[in-house]
Amino acid sequence: MKLYYLVFSARGLALAQTLAAALGGEAARCGGSVTLHGWTKAHFRTGAGLVYVGACGIAVRAVGPLLRSKETDPAVVAVDEQGTWAVPLLSGHLGGANALARAIGRVCGAQPVLTTATDAGGLFPIDDWARRQGCAVADVHKIRDVSAALLAGRTLRLYSDWPIEGTPPAGVALAGTKADCDAALTLTDPGPALWLAPRVLALGVGCRRGTPAAALEEALAALLEREELCVKSIGKVCTIDRKGDEPGLLAFCAAHGWPLETYTPARLQAAQGDFASSAFVAQTVGVDNVCERAAVLGTEGGALAVRKQAGAGVTLALAARAFRPDWKWTE
């Protein structure tokens, strides 16, 4: 998480610099060309953590006009200048504000003031756990129902495609099947259960020169629907180096916030695995398959999850990196 600190006094600046030295990030002092609302607007949409060293009210007034949804809003924490309290104001679980407040507390001794219901009740915060495990919540609106059930004293039945290291926390039991669970840690659609989608997939792409972003979007949407996968499980796009400057591919990646990784033909050819082979592709670009090999390289040798899908000048494949979840959600 990229952190930004805004302060309003010399004392606040000293605290922010201490926090930045330990946690990373950039500190700025309000005044002159640095205005409260200008600074907030400049950093709010970056997916970053915003720390206001000052009164909670200042932070609330600054971020209020920019609020969109708990799924996209960044972590916002207010810390008093004395370093006594660290108050998560926004995106406590999904954005990581609660975890950030705890981290600030470990650096300067501030007491985290956690007001989210599950934390206040000492219960399992499933959305905080999902973030800590590197997962996205596919259907954010269902979090409320799962948390409400925990608060009402019900046992949460959680299914996972992977073994989860450690012992389930109080109030949580492992379910044997997706059909018998309240939440599922899985790559494929679990139906009515809350879907926790691990961000473990790399999308391998091959395309003709000049392919527009819309064609890539259409091909991906068809693949995800057919395979019952969540777009939030994709963490990067991978392809051959000669496609690294394709405007359509770059726009496609930018729209989703995905980094684009490229590989030389020699590197692609050296990838280990059982791949589809095309003599035409080999003659054209110097390697017999781009999308499958690129996807595997993007996961550092992970397994193919979806083999080559081709149509309308686009080829796609997905590979999954190794994933080892545990029951931790705090440091």
Automatic annotation (TrEMBL):
Which of UniProt's keywords are assigned here? Signal
Domain Cobalamin synthesis G N-terminal: from-to ranges? 40-119
Q: Where does the secretion signal sit in this chain?
A: 1-20
Which Pfam family, any one of them, does this sequence belong to? CbiG_mid
Q: Which InterPro entries match?
A: CbiG_hydrolase, CbiG_mid, CbiG_N, CobE/GbiG_C, CobE/GbiG_C_sf, GbiG_N_sf
Q: What biological processes does GO assign it?
A: cobalamin biosynthetic process
Residue stretches making up the Cobalamin biosynthesis central region domain: 125-183
Q: Where is the CobE/GbiG C-terminal domain?
A: 201-319
Record-given protein name? Cobalamin biosynthesis protein
